[in-house]
Design brief:
Radius of gyration: 21 Å
Number of helices: 8
Structural class: alpha/beta
Number of strands: 16
Largest sheet: 6 strands, parallel
CATH class of the largest domain: Alpha Beta
Order of helices and strands: EHEEEEHEHEEHEHEEEEHEHEEH
Helix content: 25-40%
CATH topology of the largest domain: Rossmann fold
Strand order of the largest sheet: 2-1-5-6-7-8
Strand content: 25-35%
Length: about 325
């Protein structure tokens, strides 16, 4: 007998903070189309003193609730997110899932100076108190091996390599994937394998104490290829900008820059588009005009698997 899944209620918290996150192209609506269930009705506003008002207008008693909230610019989002989660719990929601395509507060994973806050651990502890499940994409795992090291709830960290490779196969002619340094090799190699494309890792050439250049190995073999720079996060964009300049000097074609998470601080979006590029592309983990790679199908598969666990009326 086929396992039955619960009929989830999907709340679009992204829409509270970003007008781009409402409508049929939003992550919440895409998940609603693929998972079924119903859109949760949520009333939220701020009082003149800055405090939050939240009201759940959908029946949630005994039902699984999915809260879709990409956690870039997290500080103004955190309290509304927790208020909604705790209210759903009080109203009898069966299980709560946080759908955070981009997961914040992962970088501070070590106390580098005396007295520093290990914000990754503290944030994880706070989220774990209010939710039963967390699903995200390509979290910044550096010193942590997995989310279980700091999160006290069931979690799933998806990898965007398959989605990125599918976009490259469809949109880029004769691609050459490039990693900016040796640390990126494993990630770039996997995307290249899935896209059936060659890859190279850029080499740093030091000609003096302060004179370091980046070279493209076997550059003469790739004159007719489209360089594709792949990274997990585009924040300041400085590494990509430097790499693009080196590609230009090497006589390579304008590059395609791909980032799973496009944060684009400090004017990085404008600077990259003015550089040696033909396109700057990101996934829809963070709403932005550069979004072209859809993570909703992968997220839906992960959520469907979780929904089936202990679903009402489920049987083997």
């Amino acid at each position: 007998m086929k396992t039955k899944t619960s009929n989830p209620v999907i709340f679009n918290l992204d829409a509270l903070f970003d007008s781009q996150s409402s409508g049929p192209a939003s992550m919440a609506d895409k998940l609603l189309q693929q998972l079924g269930g119903e859109a949760g009705e949520l009333e939220y506003r701020q009082f003149p003193d800055g405090e939050s008002y939240a009201r759940i207008a959908s029946p949630v008693n005994g039902r699984d609730c999915l809260l879709v909230c990409s956690l870039h610019d997290p500080n103004p989002k955190f309290l509304p997110l927790i208020f909604v989660a705790e209210t759903l719990r009080e109203l009898g929601a069966r299980r709560l899932a946080l759908v955070a395509p981009y997961l914040c507060y992962m970088r501070q994973d070590k106390r580098f100076h005396s007295g520093e806050s290990l914000t990754s651990r503290h944030f994880a502890s706070l989220i774990s108190r209010s939710f039963d499940f967390l699903i995200t994409v390509d979290p910044h795992l550096h010193r942590y091996h997995n989310l279980d090291e700091i999160y006290g709830l069931e979690s799933q960290a998806l990898v965007s390599a398959e989605s990125v490779a599918a976009w490259i196969l469809k949109e880029v002619r004769n691609p050459l994937l490039l990693g900016p340094d040796s640390e990126s090799e494993q990630w770039v190699a996997e995307v290249a394998r899935l896209a059936d494309a060659p890859f190279e890792v850029l080499e740093k050439v030091r000609s003096g104490d302060l004179d370091v250049e980046v070279s493209v190995p076997h550059v003469d073999s790739y004159r007719e290829h489209t360089p594709v720079l792949v990274d997990d996060i585009i924040s300041s964009g400085r590494t990509l900008l430097q790499t693009l300049e080196h590609l230009k000097k090497a006589g390579m074609q304008p590059a395609v820059c791909i980032g799973t998470h496009g944060l684009f601080g400090a004017g990085a979006w404008e600077l990259l588009n003015e550089s040696h590029t033909q396109a700057v592309v990101t996934s829809n983990s963070v709403p932005h005009p550069s979004n072209a790679i859809d993570l909703a199908p992968a997220l839906a598969r992960g959520l469907e698997e979780w929904l089936k666990k202990n679903a009402p009326g489920a049987s083997d």
